[in-house]
Design a protein that fits this description.
alpha+beta, 8-stranded antiparallel β-sheet, 6 helices
């Protein structure tokens, strides 16, 4: 193989592709990036065996071919090249790649004639696609990923549940103590209703690809695919039955308060300084007519209390929350004002923006003697 390519285009493609690689992967070749040149295009691909990413850039191909090179070495070298272009040639017998830039040459030892493990693709007959406008996945990542479980005992809860229906895409994440729920319209989807569970990596990495340009989402045969011009990210779906989350979403509330998001976040952060010193310390929310009082007390540390004036409805309530969880919930909202709806002393609370209804968060309170 022999080709010449732009340094900045190659560096940009490598920066996207290298993110899927797990350096600790026990399969050595899976720590590499495959370069394949043909028809004036350079294809760069990588996999962690659960996900696969493919990028494509233009290049001048003298001899078509392929090679797999160590990701870290290749990425670091290309990013540091001082020239606008470079030439890469391979020796099919030794598995080495020579990279010429100006009068200089670097040689990288590759993986011989081996190729990356073949990753499955979605059959072409699965042609129903969903278009995601720029920034969509960034918002979904902020709203959902923090609520995914970190516990290996229930792997399906480590993913994000996705329900696709005519005109609507619903996404849910839960770890059993909290739940994030979001949806967005998909007017062009007219296929059958489907439910899948995707890995959080696909959502987080997809948000980077979706930052400035639209993405196309396709799924089928146990796979999900995100594609943009010159870039495709494919991931395996997670196995397992997702729990019936609808039953924990309260239909009504006994108490509601509305408060500026920035004011509440600041108050939680300050009161949580006490709770953070003793992880068993909860944060107390007390709602009375016209006020929301937050407090925390740790016997060996101290105590803190803040009072926020805010509109309230319903009965007085005194309830305990995990300070980290309530702060995560408030941070997930992108609005000037939020509403907290309490459905009972030991029942789930709903936290949502007051200016839109496409996203809300459900948080279980800490158990307390009543």
């Amino acid at each position: 193989m022999k080709f010449s390519a732009s340094q900045d285009q190659t560096a940009s493609a490598l920066q996207q592709v290298v993110r899927v690689i797990q350096p600790q992967n026990t399969m050595a070749i899976a720590t590499g990036i495959q370069l394949e040149a043909d028809n004036s295009r350079l294809h760069l691909s990588a996999t962690d065996l659960s996900n696969h990413i493919l990028a494509e850039i233009p290049c001048e191909v003298s001899e078509p071919g392929y090679i797999v090179l160590p990701a870290s070495t290749l990425n670091d070298l290309i990013h540091r090249l001082p020239t606008a272009t470079f030439e890469l040639s391979t020796n099919s017998h030794t598995g080495r790649a020579s990279i010429r830039y100006g009068r200089n040459t670097a040689v990288i030892n590759g993986f011989g004639q081996d190729m990356l493990p073949e990753f499955p693709q979605i059959p072409q007959e699965h042609n129903q696609a969903i278009t995601l406008t720029p920034g969509t996945l960034a918002s979904l990542s902020r709203e959902l990923l923090f609520a995914c479980s970190k516990d290996d005992s229930r792997p399906v809860l480590k993913g994000v549940y996705m329900k696709i229906t005519t005109g609507k895409l619903v996404l849910v994440a839960t770890d059993g103590s909290r739940l994030s729920h979001s949806w967005l319209p998909i007017p062009d989807y007219l296929d059958v209703e489907q439910s899948i569970v995707i890995s959080p990596k696909l959502l987080s990495e997809g948000s980077r690809l979706n930052a400035t340009e639209s993405l196309t989402l396709r799924f089928g045969s146990g796979l999900i695919e995100l594609s943009a011009p010159r870039l495709t990210f494919t991931g395996r779906l997670l196995d397992g039955q997702y729990p019936d989350y609808d039953r924990v979403i309260p239909n009504d509330y006994v108490t509601q308060c509305r408060v500026p998001t920035a004011d509440l976040r600041g108050a939680i952060e300050r009161v949580s300084l006490i709770a953070a010193k003793d992880r068993s310390t909860p944060i107390r929310f007390r709602v009375e007519s016209g006020i929301l009082e937050l407090s925390a007390e740790a016997q060996e540390i101290g105590q803190a209390k803040e009072i926020l004036d805010c509109p309230t409805n319903g009965q007085d309530i005194d309830i305990l929350f995990n300070p980290a969880y309530i702060l995560d919930a408030v941070k997930s909202l992108d609005s000037e004002e939020l509403a907290i709806e309490f459905s009972g002393l030991q029942s789930p609370a709903k936290i949502r923006s007051t200016d839109q209804s496409s996203y809300f968060h459900i948080l279980l309170p800490l158990r307390q003697l009543v």
